[in-house]
Amino acid sequence: MGKLSNPRNTIEVIAEHNFDFRKRFGQNFLVDESVILRALEAAEVGGNDVVFEIGPGIGTLTQYLCEAAYQVAAIEIDRKLIPILKDTLKKYENVRIINEDVLKTDLLDLAREFEAGNPGAHLFVPKHPLKIVANLPYYITTPILMSLFRNKVPAQSVTVMVQKEVADRMTAQPGTKDYGALSVAVQYYSSPRLVEIVPPESFLPRPKVTSAVITMHLYEEMPVRPKDEDLFMAVVRAAFEQRRKTLVNAIGSNPAISCGKDNVRQALEQMGKSPSVRGETLSVEEFAQLSDLLKI
Ligand code: SAM
User: Whole-model pTM?
Assistant: First the structure.
């Protein structure tokens, strides 16, 4: 059988294994080779790379990753997909199939095991660059991205298929309607680039939404360095929890920060900002500046 990116092969495998799609796991499998090739090109997957794939499904993208990379670790939550993956990937010796919830998987440990990482991350000296490539389950896109970032998984890049609206939020600039906590977090840790818009017809079954591939190069040297990253993140979250509130009200009355409105007012004054300013106007650097001023 040829590649699973050919819809006929996907349909055949699904029928052969009597597989029922599970909506609750966000299962929409890619059946479009051109999308896969462009994602691989954007991720710059090469022969010395280790790739972690989140949610391999029946192994469509995995087949291409195995051909391009040194080693692939494919982490899939649905145990019913494991025998299928063993079948569709049987000709590849450089893949490890892991039946786990990615949100409960220690990817740092896995990176160490594969001797893979980002040379600039200084955690250990990796033999192989680590890249993350995935057609993400949309119901947990933000938790997955945030856990990759917050746990400092030492990847060079993260290339993912997400809902188009989410891609818009990830790349949004201050002052636009899509700019929010996710934009600040993504742009704090990485420089994101929209690779392409992907229509529902590229998947089986077809999702109701339009998708997009986005690639994020994670910073080796962080360009913005708040004194306290946890406080910085808390300030960003508070600022966008109720977007219509001014920063003075949103942050000053937030129990997780408990700094008081006067302190926020003073900090904004020091930054040369009006006390009526809202979160959507602040850049990543300005959020760092604000959280530094609020740190006691
Ligand atoms: N990569 C495949 C493709 O492109 O055809 C499948 C992508 S599908 C959108 C998302 C996959 O993620 C599904 O196989 C689903 O079972 C899996 N998944 C969902 N939640 C997961 C989790 N918490 N951990 C690991 N995999 C998960």
Answer: 0.95
The pLDDT, as a whole number, for residue 129 is 95
Q: Which of 10, 78, 161, 201 to mutate to test the pocket of ligand 1 (most atoms within 8 A of CB)?
A: 78
Distance CA 209, CA 175 (A): 25
Around ligand 1, the residues with Cβ closer than 6 Å are: 25-30, 54-57, 60-61, 75-78, 81, 101-103, 135, 137, 140
Confidence (pLDDT) at 268: 97
**Domains, in order of start, for the chain:** 7-218 (3.40.50.150), 229-294 (1.10.8.100)
Tokens of residue 279, six digits: 């979160």
Which tokens belong to 31?
């059946």
Ligand 1 atom closest to the Cα of residue 102 is: 24
Instruction: Give CA–CA dist 294/268, Å, rounded.
Output: 10
| Distance from residue 287's CA to the centre of ligand 1 (Å) | 34
Q: What percent of the chain has pLDDT over 70?
A: 98
